[in-house]
Structures are given as C-alpha cells and as structure tokens.
C-alpha cells in the first residue's frame, strides 16, 4: 500500500472556492482502488470546525511561525484528514485567502509557509505514527512543503514529492525580506531554490524541489513551456521537462450525476434526456428568462480576463439576436459584473444574471441549460466542461488546455464519425466567440444532431478511474530504487 499525504488549501465538501477543491476532495477515492491510501492535510479554517470538534491531537507546536498550533486527526468522508489548527493564522472571517472584501491577507506568505512546513514535517518523520511515501502538494499554497522537504527536512526519511500545477498564473510571489523568516538555510535562496526575480516564489520553489511535476491536462503541460502560457516559469518547466506529466482531472460521479442529483427538478440519463425540459423550465424561472424552445446558454465562472468574460460580454447582443438566451452564475471583476448586469437590463427575459456562487444552482444550470460557454484564454483543465458533458449541457469552448483535450469539435468529420461532443473555437475574439455561438445555435436547430452531441458527451468517461490509475503509476515510479 502506497501512503500519500495530499497537501492542499481546500477540498470539497469542507472548503471550496473553485475546481481545486473538487479535485483534492475526489483524489482519495480515486486512488484507493489502485492501492494508494491518501491522507489529506488542510488548513484549520472556521469552515472545518464541525469535523474537528472531536478530533484527536496528533502533534503540537509551541511556536509555528510565531504562534502555537496543533495537528488534528479527523475524517473527510471515509478517508483520513489532518488539519493544521493554527488559530492565529487561519481562524478568521472572509475566505481562505482574503478578507470579506476579497483583498488578500497581508500575511498569506506566513500562513502558507507554515502550512508547507507542517506538510514537510509530516512527510519527514517529525510526527510520530505518521509516515508517508509520497508528499503530493497542490498549487502555490502547498508548494513550500516540497521546498522544506528538500532544504530543511525532519529527522526521518523524506518522502518523494509531487507538485500539481492547477493554474500556473497563481504563484505566491513575495519580497526577499520574508526569506529570513522562512527557516530555510541561506543556500536555499538561489536560482535553483526559492529565489524568483529577486524575491521569493512559493510555486517556483516547489517546482524546483519536487521529484515530479504534474499539470491537469496534457495540452496544458505543453502550453506552459511557452512564454504566452508559462507566466514567467516557462524556462523552469523546460529545464525540468522530463519531470512534467499532464494528467486530465476527473469528476466525481457521486457528486456530478444527472441520474441521482438532488439539485435537479428532474433526474435523467442519456436514455431519458428528454426529461431535461423540466430543468430547463426551472432555469427559466430561476433566472427570469422568457419561457421558450430556443437555446439557453449558461456561464458558470469567475468573471475574469482569463475566462474570456470581457470578450463574451461584447457579443451578448449577437447571442440574443440569434434567438439565444443566457443564464449566468458567477462573480469576479467588478467592471465585468456590472457589464453583465447592464446586458441583462438591456435584454430583460433574454439574459439573467446572478452574481455570486451557489452550488445547487450550478448543478441545475448544467442539468437544464442547453450549452455552456467557456471562452477561456487559457484553461489548465477545466471542470465545468466535464460537468457539461456529463449532464448533456453541450460545451462551447476555446481550443486551449484541458478544453482542447476533453471536447471533440462538432465539425463535419466529427459529426460524420459520430464522436463529436461540443464546439471548439480558435482564439478568444468577439468574432470567434460569436461564430461559435452561431454554430451552436444552428446545430440546436437540428434536434437529432443536437441530441447526438448530448448523448456522446454523457456516455464519455471522465470519471477518476483512468486519472487515478495514472497518478498511482507516477507514485510507483517515484518509489522505484534509483
């Protein structure tokens, strides 16, 4: 049995701000059939209070980056969970990374350096009764764990380490003045260490230290070797290219399954897809849309430049002119929020906007809207298109990253071969996005073709089975004698 410590800043269903939580929450069950026992380490946010109320204390720190702390043992579902109970660092309002206004906490470097230190301690013999073969760190918030494991490990045999890059745009960059407080040897402040453009880079440090690097799709693994996608780290990625692997994320069918989803007004399968009409009526009611048979497009997204929302908002008049309607659920840049709300004011009954995030509503949209728009400029993997495929909500996506790897374009060849599952477009411009919407609208007007797209997507396998197997293979390779 391979023992893995999965270190992450969020995990569904305990704490979630995005797709990272879904992945981390699903991994333990995905890996278990392959002989991998996964323990998840999370920060002790207030949202975890219920699961730690009767938790066992497995280790105490009298001074962890300036304050006392404990490691608590609990459960996440059926799998082991460890929680860093450090009230001075994590017991605060707002979100995991910032206050109620969305501003980042000034001490995030300290919070997640402490978190990484604890991950490395657990993976190198500091905590009695806890030994791991692999430390698997997710994104910059956990990336200091492999760094500590390499440059300042505990007394035991250090575990092998993996860093998964869910989005290389978020790196955890700080000034050089924090280095003296990290508890690392001076030698670690180097080009092949934590130093990054004269400061400290958390993700960069983890990538340098890790025995293996994964990204969340094969195409993204190739893209981040180029300047337009590497966000300044493309040189490092190319230097360590032999360590880099792309493994597409999966989705958890226990959570995302239209045949059993309690958030839907009507449950259905690929054989009973006509029942989606009940959910479509519910979407119309929830978003104040006029009832009708024309296509409902949905957006379930952060409203940001990365997601192409600045371009999408410019083509909404075209979408309505083509006979489409839009139901949008999301939040992000204030200017984009206001622009989408203004579009809804211009087109009452045709565009409905809800600012914020609502998990049940996101399920209903996937189960009732006809197509989901994802015009991302870059998308490491993406999960919303996978949910769309599983729910018969046809993805209309930019040809990039994991979107390219998971959606088969409904061109003539794809349709003739009976394999098409959605619509792809090259580039993120008003012309490209508007043309993709026009293609979707034309296909929707041909019910047999549209139903085939839906059923193809619903029958595709994007569960964690294959992805779990590939992670298990990676761990096994790392554990081979050198």
From TrEMBL:
What family does this chain come from, according to its entry?
Answer: Belongs to the glycosyltransferase 1 family. Bacterial/plant glycogen synthase subfamily.
Residues noted as binding ADP-alpha-D-glucose in the record, renumbered to the chain: 16
Source superkingdom: Bacteria
Describe the reaction catalysed, as an equation: [(1->4)-alpha-D-glucosyl](n) + ADP-alpha-D-glucose = [(1->4)-alpha-D-glucosyl](n+1) + ADP + H(+)
Q: What name has this protein been given in UniProt?
A: Glycogen synthase
GO cellular component terms, semicolon-separated: cytosol
Q: Which GO terms describe its biological process?
A: glycogen biosynthetic process
- HAMAP family, per database record: Glycogen_synth
Occurrences of domain Starch synthase catalytic (ranges): 3-238
What CDD domains does the record tag this protein with?
GT5_Glycogen_synthase_DULL1-like
Q: Name one GO molecular function term.
A: alpha-1,4-glucan glucosyltransferase (ADP-glucose donor) activity
Alphabetically list the UniProt keywords: Glycogen biosynthesis, Glycosyltransferase, Transferase
Organism expressing this protein natively? Sphingomonas ginsenosidivorax
Q: What does this protein do?
A: Synthesizes alpha-1,4-glucan chains using ADP-glucose.
**UniProt-listed Enzyme Commission number(s):** 2.4.1.21
């Amino acid at each position: 049995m391979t023992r893995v410590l999965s270190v992450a800043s969020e995990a569904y269903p305990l704490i979630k701000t995005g797709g990272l939580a879904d992945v981390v929450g699903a991994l333990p069950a995905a890996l278990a059939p392959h002989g991998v026992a996964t323990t998840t380490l999370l920060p002790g946010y207030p949202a975890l209070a219920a699961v730690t109320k009767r938790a066992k204390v497995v280790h105490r720190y009298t001074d962890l980056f300036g304050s006392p702390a404990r490691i608590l043992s609990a459960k996440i579902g059926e799998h082991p969970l460890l929680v860093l109970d450090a009230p001075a660092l994590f017991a605060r309002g707002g979100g995991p990374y910032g206050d109620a206004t969305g501003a980042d906490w000034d001490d995030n470097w300290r919070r997640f350096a402490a978190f990484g230190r604890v991950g490395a301690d657990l993976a190198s013999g500091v905590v009695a009764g806890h030994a791991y073969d692999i430390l698997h760190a997710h994104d910059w918030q956990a990336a200091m764990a492999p760094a500590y494991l390499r440059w300042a490990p505990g007394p035991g045999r250090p575990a092998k380490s993996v860093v998964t890059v869910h989005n290389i745009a978020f790196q955890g960059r700080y000034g050089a003045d924090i280095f003296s407080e990290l508890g690392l040897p001076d030698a670690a402040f180097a080009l092949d260490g934590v130093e990054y453009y004269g400061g400290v880079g958390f993700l960069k440090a983890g990538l340098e230290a890790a025995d293996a690097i994964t990204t969340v799709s094969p195409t993204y693994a190739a893209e981040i070797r180029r300047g337009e996608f590497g966000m300044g780290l493309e040189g490092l990625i190319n230097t360590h290219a032999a360590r880099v692997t792309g493994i597409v994320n999966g989705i958890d069918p226990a959570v995302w399954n239209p045949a059993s989803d309690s958030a839907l007004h009507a449950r259905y399968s690929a054989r009973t897809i006509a029942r989606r009409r009940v959910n479509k009526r519910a979407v119309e009611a929830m978003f104040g849309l006029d009832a009708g048979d024309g296509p409902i497009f949905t957006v379930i997204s952060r409203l940001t430049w990365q997601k192409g929302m600045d371009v999408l908002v410019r083509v909404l008049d075209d979408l309505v002119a083509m006979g489409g309607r839009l139901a949008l659920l999301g939040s992000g840049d204030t200017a984009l929020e206001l622009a989408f709300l203004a579009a809804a004011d211009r087109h009452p009954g045709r565009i409905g906007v809800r600012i914020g995030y609502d998990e049940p509503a996101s399920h209903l949209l996937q189960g009732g809207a006809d197509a989901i728009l994802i015009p991302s400029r870059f998308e490491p993997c993406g999960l919303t298109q996978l949910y769309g495929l599983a729910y018969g909500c046809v993805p209309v996506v930019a040809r990039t990253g994991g979107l390219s790897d998971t959606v088969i374009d409904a061109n003539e060849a794809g349709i003739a071969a009976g394999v098409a599952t959605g619509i792809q477009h090259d580039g993120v411009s008003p012309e490209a996005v508007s043309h993709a919407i026009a293609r979707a609208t034309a296909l929707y007007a041909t019910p047999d073709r549209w139903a085939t797209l839906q059923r193809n997507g619903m029958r595709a396998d994007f569960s964690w089975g294959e992805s779990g197997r590939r992670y298990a293979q990676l761990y096994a390779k790392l554990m081979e004698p050198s």
